[in-house]
């Protein structure tokens, strides 16, 4: 057994207590073997004075949208997608996806995110990046019917199913997949039903956008006399493995249905604020036992992929939404960003315990904004930033050591992404 020991730090346990312990990791299985005092390994990471926490889980993003960061801001969802995003995405080439994904993955490794769920195009190129960079990911081809004829819309869903089957288990098992129809309003009912049936036949989840804006909810209610989540359940999109992004506008019946079926919701607070989509009822979801993770959404509606920002936004917005300062308390926000997201994605990760995946972020606490140390969970929720991450470990391998990313050439990744982004906008004629 080749081992890695993370020594001298304090660890954040899944019950949100902090204790002094070393972490011993089996690099071959990628699992945590043991927590304890004075553990030695073949390789070692110094965590003296640091906090070792589970690697963060970004449970909903469109990673290559990093190329569109700052391209179009300050618009509502529908206008933003139709006027600014979709026209540029039509000019995307596979090389762009690879360059944008590498940039996004680099940003996530630097900020302690070890797993992301991605809905986008040309996902085999994103898979190549994940393979090289060493993170974990759930990938899916986003399929859409809007603007396509019947045959093209069906082919898009079939592509999503084929890619999910093809890539599941890639990168030594670090890649899992889902079938990803874009949303309840941009994919036809027949194709949503087909996506669900095919996904479950392939043994993978369905992932989609739902209940993001009132503009999406109202037409479904008017046309069908049903709430969107009830309709999604009837189409087969709410089984225990399935999960959707946003869930901003949900009523009590829908929340109850999500809890009963075990359907996961990925809360994307920054995107919901930036596109003025609304405030998700996160405390009510948690109280009802709905599995909840956190996502950045794409970098064009955030505009970064730092999960620390997201978990602070989740805590802040959750209080505002509930009109209650005790809502979405610090431990709940930190849990959503770690174990919550891992549970939504069906991964044995997000917790520091023997037998769990060795996906870890080591936080350097030696900073003015993290002093004094009254409560480290409070610091993670309200004061820490992605740039406080010192080491990142995924699947037992060190991806970043002392703030140096070992698996990607940082300067080359940034240079290439900037060049591809310029070329993309030029080709799109904007
Ligand atoms: N194959 C599809 C691509 C879908 S990928 C996922 C899509 O979701 C878009 N997207 C990004 N953020 C959001 C959001 O908040 N809500 C809905 N869609 C979004 C993103 O720009 C991308 O077009 C096609 O032919 O267009
Ligand atoms: Zn999205």
From TrEMBL:
Q: What keywords are annotated for this sequence in UniProt?
A: Hydrolase, Metal-binding, Zinc
Supply one GO molecular-function term: 5'-methylthioadenosine deaminase activity
Reaction catalysed by this enzyme? S-adenosyl-L-homocysteine + H2O + H(+) = S-inosyl-L-homocysteine + NH4(+); S-methyl-5'-thioadenosine + H2O + H(+) = S-methyl-5'-thioinosine + NH4(+)
- Supply the EC number(s): 3.5.4.28, 3.5.4.31
Xref: SUPFAM superfamilies? Composite domain of metallo-dependent hydrolases, Metallo-dependent hydrolases
Which residues are recorded as binding Zn(2+)?
Answer: 60, 62, 209, 297
The Amidohydrolase-related domain is annotated at 51-398
Q: Which Pfam families match?
A: Amidohydro_1
Q: How is the cofactor bound?
A: Binds 1 zinc ion per subunit.
| Binding annotation for substrate | 89, 182, 212, 297
Q: Which EC class does it fall in?
A: hydrolase
- Per its Swiss-Prot or TrEMBL entry, what cofactor is needed? Zn(2+)
Q: Sum up the protein's function in the record's words.
A: Catalyzes the deamination of 5-methylthioadenosine and S-adenosyl-L-homocysteine into 5-methylthioinosine and S-inosyl-L-homocysteine, respectively. Is also able to deaminate adenosine.
Q: According to its UniProt record, which protein family does this protein belong to?
A: Belongs to the metallo-dependent hydrolases superfamily. MTA/SAH deaminase family.
Write the protein's name.
Answer: 5-methylthioadenosine/S-adenosylhomocysteine deaminase
Q: Taxonomically, what lineage is the organism?
A: Archaea, Methanobacteriati, Methanobacteriota, Stenosarchaea group, Halobacteria
Gene transcribed to yield this protein = mtaD
């Amino acid at each position: 057994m080749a081992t890695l020991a993370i020594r001298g730090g304090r660890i954040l346990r899944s019950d949100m207590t902090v204790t002094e312990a070393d972490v011993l990791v089996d690099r071959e299985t990628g699992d945590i073997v043991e927590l304890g005092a004075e553990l030695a390994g073949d390789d070692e990471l110094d965590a003296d004075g640091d906090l070792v926490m589970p690697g963060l889980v970004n449970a909903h993003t469109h990673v290559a949208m990093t190329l569109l960061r700052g391209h179009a801001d300050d618009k509502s969802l529908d206008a933003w997608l139709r006027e600014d995003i979709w026209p540029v995405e039509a000019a995307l080439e596979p090389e762009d996806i690879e360059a944008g994904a590498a940039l996004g993955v680099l940003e996530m490794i630097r900020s302690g995110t070890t797993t992301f769920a991605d809905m986008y195009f040309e996902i085999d190129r994103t898979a190549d990046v994940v393979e090289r960079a060493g993170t974990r990911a759930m990938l899916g081809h986003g399929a859409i019917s809007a603007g396509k004829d019947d045959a093209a819309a069906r082919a898009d869903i079939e592509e999503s199913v084929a890619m999910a089957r093809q890539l599941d288990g890639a990168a030594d098992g670090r890649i899992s997949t889902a079938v990803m129809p874009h949303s309840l309003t941009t994919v036809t009912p027949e194709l949503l039903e087909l996506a669900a049936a095919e996904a479950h036949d392939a043994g993978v989840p369905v992932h989609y956008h739902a209940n993001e804006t009132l503009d999406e909810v109202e037409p479904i209610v008017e046309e069908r006399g049903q709430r969107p989540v009830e309709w999604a359940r009837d189409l087969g999109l709410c089984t225990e493995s399935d999960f959707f992004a946003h869930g901003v506008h949900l009523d009590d019946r829908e929340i109850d249905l999500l809890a009963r079926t075990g359907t996961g919701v990925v809360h994307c607070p920054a995107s919901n604020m930036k596109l003025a989509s609304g405030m998700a009822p996160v405390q009510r979801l948690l109280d009802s036992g709905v599995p909840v993770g956190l996502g950045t959404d794409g970098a064009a509606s955030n505009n970064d992929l730092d999960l620390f920002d997201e978990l602070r936004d989740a805590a802040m917005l959750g209080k505002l939404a509930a009109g209650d300062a005790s809502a979405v308390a610090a431990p709940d926000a930190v849990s959503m960003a770690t174990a919550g997201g891992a549970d939504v994605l069906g991964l044995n990760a997000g917790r520091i315990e023997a037998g769990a995946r060795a996906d870890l972020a080591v936080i350097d606490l030696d900073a003015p904004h993290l002093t004094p140390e009254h409560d480290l969970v409070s610091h993670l929720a309200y004061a820490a930033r992605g740039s406080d991450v010192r080491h990142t470990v995924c699947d037992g391998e060190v991806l970043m050591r002392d703030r140096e990313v070992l698996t990607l050439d940082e300067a080359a990744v940034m240079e290439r992404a900037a060049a591809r982004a310029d070329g993309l906008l030029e080709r799109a004629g904007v």
